[in-house]
Design a protein that fits this description.
single chain; about 325 residues; alpha/beta; Rossmann fold; Zinc Finger, Delta Prime, domain 3; 2 domains; 14 helices; 5 strands; about 10% strand; binds zinc ion
Length: about 325
């Protein structure tokens, strides 16, 4: 993946490329994001840039043998670690590690690098458990980073969601992150940096990602109208309309319901930003701008909280009709000037 294929976060791309150009990448970075911000594709573009034989214009060439192997996930020195658990797909393995599922991971990553933890869990067959990064995995990491690199260049260890690492694994890994072997590079991708043990976190260059601009979001069309309808219902004091929209939303699948909530958060943020003349110039940014001045300023914080609660409720399997009726109702209540 080239930087230009990664959605948004343009300033960060320039910063990462400059770090490589000036040879000051260090040996461990931690990309901090929320689900959907695209830290994994960013990590892949970064590794590809680091290895490219013909970098130019702040991007990898996408054509040299290294670029091709990295983008096809066939480079032997790029390793992945992610949370796993025993499932029907672990092939009878009692202590599965990431490599047990590596073909599933690669397939998902090639298909859509913006996948969520839940989407990965579904693919891995983790149903009612959570994935963990355990001590066996930490041993694997040590082994791999200890080996001479296959290609004579750097070795990369991409650790997705280190917040799922248990204490034993963290302790095991600590030393190698503190005193890495030459030519090894760690990229941690976290959605909960506060849950990563401090001793690892403090060894990394920490980098925060920004949300992907709304113009890149594929579901915009599907979610925009229902959300505007909830806003309009609140602004025009039309409770019946609000509740009707809630019913439509209750009929969506769980994954789409969560995406809807995420979409609403970014749209609401757009409205807030355009009030400060910082909105996106895209069509969606202009649509958001139509709400500038109409939504009470005191509402935003409340709105973000309500949307986050709704998403958390959906995630913990609360009845969707109840969640969205409640959401529409509370928007109606709080949008009153
Ligand atoms: Zn290249």
């Amino acid at each position: 993946m080239q930087f230009k294929e990664v959605k948004g976060n343009d300033t960060l791309k320039e910063r990462l490329a400059a770090m490589v150009d000036q040879n000051r990448t260090g040996h461990a970075i931690m990309l901090e994001e929320k689900s959907g911000y695209g830290a994994l594709p960013m990590a892949m573009a970064f590794i590809q840039y680091l290895n490219c034989a013909d970098r130019h214009d702040g991007d990898s060439c996408g054509e040299c043998s290294s670029c091709r192997r990295i983008s096809h996930l066939q480079h032997p020195d790029v390793h992945f670690v992610f949370p796993v658990n025993v499932t029907a797909k672990s092939g009878g393995e009692k202590k599965p590690v990431s490599d047990t599922f590596i073909s599933i991971w690669k397939e998902l990553l090639l298909k859509n690098p913006y996948f969520t933890e839940e989407e990965l869990n579904t693919e891995l067959g983790i149903e009612d458990k959570v994935g963990v990064i355990n001590v066996n995995e930490a041993k694997e990491i040590l082994n791999k980073m200890n080996l001479r690199s296959f290609e004579g260049g750097n070795k990369y260890m991409v650790i997705w969601l280190p917040e799922r690492m248990n204490t034993e694994a963290s302790n095991k890994l600590l030393k190698i992150v503190e005193e890495p072997f030459p030519g090894t590079f760690f990229i941690f991708i976290t959605q909960a940096p506060e849950k990563v043990i401090d001793t690892i976190r403090s060894r990394c260059l920490r980098i925060q990602l920004q949300p992907v601009p709304m113009e890149y979001q594929p579901d915009v069309e599907e979610y925009l109208e229902p959300f505007c309808s909830i806003l309009e219902a609140g602004l025009s004091r039309d409770l019946v309309k609000a509740l009707k929209t809630a019913e439509t939303l209750a009929a969506l699948g769980r994954e789409r319901q969560k995406r809807f909530c995420l979409f609403c958060e970014s749209f609401l943020r757009q409205i807030m930003m355009s009030g400060m003349n910082l909105g996106e110039k895209s069509a969606i940014g202009r649509r958001a701008a139509t709400y500038t001045g109409r939504i009470p300023e005191t509402f935003f914080e409340k709105g973000f909280g309500l949307l986050e609660n709704a998403r958390a409720s959906i995630e913990s399997n609360v009845n969707a009709k109840m969640v969205f009726t409640n959401l529409a109702n509370l928007f109606w209540v709080h949008l009153k000037k």
